[in-house]
């Protein structure tokens, strides 16, 4: 029997299905409309900005780094542009294979590979790192022809720092190097974060570090329109970068060159100051290093050679080398005696050639002694016994209290970083410096050595130079500085670098006059008279010799029987002209022996340069290097007649 269809029921079912489908379509359409409204109205600004950013790119423009000049405008640090071949590790294939393939196109030396490996360890994989620098035009063309073979490898035009005189004054100038992670973190947390976008290098030492803000300049930006593939199509807008300012130093680079030449292969440090202003005229640490090695990133072999050298060329001896001052301390001891009333200028002692304390004999350097010795003679002839007795009478804490105002054992505040404080001993210092009770106790015998600048005394040459400047400048405490002025890169206007005003310490002028007069006597008739014979100006000075190796009571010092690095250090402090000092010097020649022989002759040539405009003859410089000259030999030259720049 055939079943009859229920047409009405089927129509009702169909209508329900159409209604449900219509509702689903309506809801879907409503959702699309709502989404469209959300995107078009609610998120319009955000999406428009994203679209614009996909169309454009903001590229930082790194500024030219500022120049560094000496006081006469001679350029000590500048920039040049060159092409570099760079690899972005995250975009390149296997690095070893990539470098090997590149080496078939462009010469890549083992040194390049080592430097790249060192940079890779210090950087992130998405950073572009140089594998070769200073490419020639021919090398650029060779790589460009095969660029398609090397994803993640590209040629970039970069500015490179250049130090035209290499090792000359490197400890004062410093150098730049790639920004490491610690420096990047510090920049990111500072207000300068935006100004360092795109910058790979930063000042690491010396003026380059301390005046980084002035030298860096202001980063610019370029807004570029890009294609879908990310390639630049055209420039939409730009803000030019502002070059860094020029920093002019107080250093005279010709004088610096003379001093470094006179040191030769010897180790040591020298600081020459204008005692009236605190300007540093020469800032020498020997041996030196070539800062150009650090610009691209120094390779491991050169780094190891510098870092492990017994001569420690990376040590800034003028700033961080601390030495016993030896007999250069005696004028300050004599001044303390006058200030405390422990001695008068006329008061004399009888010097038998030694001083006895508790069964220990402290020997004078002159066997048999100096006879009857007053204060003037004690400085002129450098009588140790006089100062053994004086130190015993003063005591360690009185010595400390009268030396501290002269800056011994405290930072000078010079405008480069890394200065060491040195050590000015006292009973309080010893109590805090040692743990054991027997070590914390101060013994009377320890005071005796302080009188001749030995014992715990350790100061920098920079401190000694400033203290001498205060001695000859009526107690004015100046702050040494290397930067003289900053020249604006845009306006070219020179602004003097503002430094702290000098302050006068509490010391009687009549006592200072006694000490200055005795130091003049040192150069006229005393231990350094031979070096200043015939000088047309009057100067003052004090020689010093400081032990490196302790000599027992029953032994005598024989330099020829002692290893070179254990021989005495030679020191000298000096000023000129005596009536109105315009230059002060403090210096040390490590293991150089007697200050009168190794150091004072150098001071004479420096004064001749600064006061007379004279440059020593070649034979004279050679003799000074070997400590075989006192007064100048040969015919001196006029400074302006000496060829410049010097031959490499």
Automatic annotation (TrEMBL):
GO terms for biological process: cell wall organization; peptidoglycan biosynthetic process; proteolysis; regulation of cell shape. The active site is at residue 327. It is an enzyme of class 3 (hydrolase). Its EC number is 3.4.16.4. Residues 61-235 form the Penicillin-binding protein dimerisation domain. It catalyses: Preferential cleavage: (Ac)2-L-Lys-D-Ala-|-D-Ala. Also transpeptidation of peptidyl-alanyl moieties that are N-acyl substituents of D-alanine. Zn(2+) binds at residues 351, 364, 370, 383. It comes from the Bacteria. Pfam families: PBP_dimer, Transpeptidase. Its main location: membrane. Residues 268-607 form the Penicillin-binding protein transpeptidase domain. Catalyzes cross-linking of the peptidoglycan cell wall. NCBIfam families: pbp2_mrdA (TIGR03423). This is Peptidoglycan D,D-transpeptidase MrdA. It comes from Rhodoferax sediminis.
């Amino acid at each position: 029997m055939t079943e009859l269809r229920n047409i009405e029921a089927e129509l009702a079912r169909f209508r329900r299905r159409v209604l449900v489908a219509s509702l689903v379509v309506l809801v879907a359409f409503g959702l699309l409309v709502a989404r469209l409204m959300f995107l078009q109205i609610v998120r319009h600004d955000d999406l428009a900005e994203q679209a614009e950013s996909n169309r454009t790119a903001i590229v930082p423009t790194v500024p030219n780094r500022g120049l560094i000049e000496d006081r006469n405008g001679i350029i000590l640090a500048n920039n040049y542009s060159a092409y570099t071949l760079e690899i972005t590790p995250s975009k390149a294939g296997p690095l070893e294979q990539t470098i090997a393939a590149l080496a078939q196109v462009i010469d890549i030396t083992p040194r390049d590979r080592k430097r790249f490996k060192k940079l890779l360890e210090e950087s992130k994989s998405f950073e572009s790192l140089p594998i070769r620098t200073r490419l020639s035009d021919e090398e650029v063309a060779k790589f460009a022809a095969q660029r398609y073979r090397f994803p993640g490898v590209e040629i970039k035009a970069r500015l490179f720092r250049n130090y035209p005189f290499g090792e000359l004054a490197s400890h004062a100038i410093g150098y730049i190097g790639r920004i490491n992670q610690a420096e990047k973190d510090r920049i990111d947390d500072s207000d300068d974060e935006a100004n360092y976008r795109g910058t790979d290098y930063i000042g690491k030492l010396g003026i380059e570090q301390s005046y980084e803000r002035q030298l860096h300049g202001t980063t610019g930006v370029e807004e570029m329109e890009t294609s879908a593939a990310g390639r630049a199509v055209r420039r939409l807008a730009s803000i030019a970068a502002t070059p860094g300012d020029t920093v002019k130093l107080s250093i005279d680079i010709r004088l610096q060159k003379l001093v470094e030449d006179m040191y030769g292969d010897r180790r040591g440090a020298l600081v020459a100051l204008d005692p009236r202003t605190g300007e540093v005229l020469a800032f020498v640490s020997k041996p030196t290093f070539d800062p150009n090695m650090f610009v691209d990133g120094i390779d491991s072999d050169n780094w190891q050679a510098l870092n492990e050298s017994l001569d420690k060329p990376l040590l800034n001896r003028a700033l961080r080398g601390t030495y016993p001052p030896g007999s250069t301390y005696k004028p300050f001891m004599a001044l303390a005696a006058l200030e405390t009333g422990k001695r008068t200028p006329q008061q004399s002692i009888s010097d038998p050639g030694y001083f006895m304390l508790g069964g220990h004999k402290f020997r004078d350097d002159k066997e048999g002694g100096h006879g009857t010795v007053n204060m003037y003679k004690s400085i002129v002839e450098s009588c140790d016994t006089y100062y053994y007795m004086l130190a015993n009478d003063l005591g360690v804490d009185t010595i400390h209290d009268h030396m501290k105002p002269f800056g011994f054992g405290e930072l000078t505040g010079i405008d480069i970083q890394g200065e060491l404080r040195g050590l000015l001993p006292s009973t309080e210092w010893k109590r805090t410096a040692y743990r054991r009770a027997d070590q914390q106790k101060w013994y009377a015998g320890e005071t005796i050595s302080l009188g001749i600048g030995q014992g715990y005394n350790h100061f920098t040459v920079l401190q000694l130079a400033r203290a001498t400047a205060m001695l000859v400048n009526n107690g004015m405490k100046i702050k040494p500085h290397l930067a003289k002025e900053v020249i604006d890169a845009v306006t070219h206007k020179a602004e003097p670098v503002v430094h702290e005003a000098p302050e006068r310490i509490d010391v009687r002028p009549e006592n200072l006059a006694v000490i200055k007069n005795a130091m003049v006597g040192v150069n006229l008739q005393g231990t350094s008279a031979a070096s200043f014979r015939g000088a047309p100006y009057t100067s003052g000075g004090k020689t010093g010799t400081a032990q490196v190796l302790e000599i027992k009571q029953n032994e005598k010092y024989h330099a020829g029987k002692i290893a070179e690095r254990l021989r005495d250090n030679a020191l000298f402090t000096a000023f000129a002209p005596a009536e109105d000092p315009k230059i002060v010097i403090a210096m040390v020649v490590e293991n150089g022996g007697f200050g009168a022989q190794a150091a004072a002759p150098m001071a004479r040539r420096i004064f001749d340069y600064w006061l007379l405009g004279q440059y020593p003859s070649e034979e004279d410089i050679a003799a000074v290097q070997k400590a075989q000259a006192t007064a100048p030999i040969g015919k001196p030259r006029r400074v302006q007649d000496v060829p410049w720049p010097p031959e490499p």
